[in-house]
Specification:
- With 213 residues, the chain is of the alpha+beta class.
- 35% of the residues lie in helices and 36% in strands.
- The chain has 2 domains: 7-82; 95-210, Nuclear Transport Factor 2, Chain: A (Roll).
- It has helices at 14-21, 25-35, 54-63, 73-78, 84-109, 112-115, 139-148, and strands spanning 10-11, 40-42, 49-53, 119-129, 132-137, 155-164, 167-179, 183-197, 200-210.
- Helix 1 crosses helix 2 (25-35) and helix 3 (54-63) crosses helix 5.
């Protein structure tokens, strides 16, 4: 049975997470965005707080793709051996982030066809943009992204990734959208549901909100 998460097994701030990894807060924040460091968030009225589970951090530390100079071999050897459940979790987490990076790459390039492989053939969308409700097929996303054109400076941040057996939920915050339709500096909040289909994670629904500038 997988080890349960309890308050004693959590790291309750960026400071604690950074100290646990023996890195700066700036580095661990970057690792969340660029390398899928498993960070969770509690939503509050004024500002979200972050926390992390120790066993997820340990799994990520051992199995992530290492960049030169970031984790030395002696550091890697000092990490504890992982249980199969932790290995399985990280494998699924990495597969989901790869799917999401396919979506992000298409958005950044302004190419709807580039992001198509990330989606289930029957995927749908719903959400709000400038107070107007939109819903329908994901084809509308592909068409919009292509019409909008490149958005090279978008800054994506994974606010939450939750995995439940063969389904998953991803909360993605994207800042600095640009392009013909998005404008100069737009911001969007997206919640994606994913389904593991034929061994691959595919987006089944995109729920979005474009924030007023």
């Amino acid at each position: 049975m997988p080890e349960r998460n309890t308050p004693q097994k959590t790291l309750e701030s960026w400071k604690q997470i950074a100290a646990y990894l023996d890195r700066s807060e700036r580095t661990v924040r970057r690792w969340e965005t660029s390398e899928g460091l498993p960070i969770h968030r509690r939503e509050h009225e004024k500002q979200d707080t972050v926390f992390a589970y120790r066993h997820e951090i340990e799994a990520w530390s051992r199995l992530r793709t290492r960049c030169p100079g970031e984790i030395l071999s002696d550091e890697a050897e000092s990490l504890p051996q992982l249980k199969p459940a932790a290995n399985a979790y990280l494998a699924e987490h990495d597969a989901i982030t790869r799917t999401m990076h396919c979506y992000i790459a298409g958005a950044r390039a302004g190419d709807g066809e580039l992001m198509r492989p990330a989606f289930h053939p029957s995927a749908t969308i719903s959400g709000y943009c400038q107070g107007v409700e939109y819903s329908g097929s994901v084809e509308h996303v592909f068409q919009w992204v292509t019409a909008n054109g490149p958005a090279p400076n978008i800054n994506p941040r994974f606010a939450r990734i939750e995995i439940i057996e063969s389904i998953a939920v991803v909360h993605l915050e994207v800042q600095h959208w640009s392009g013909k339709l998005a404008g100069a500096n737009a911001r969007a909040s997206d919640v994606f549901t994913l389904l593991k289909r034929n061994g691959e994670w595919k987006i089944t629904h995109k729920l979005f909100h474009w924030h007023d500038q």
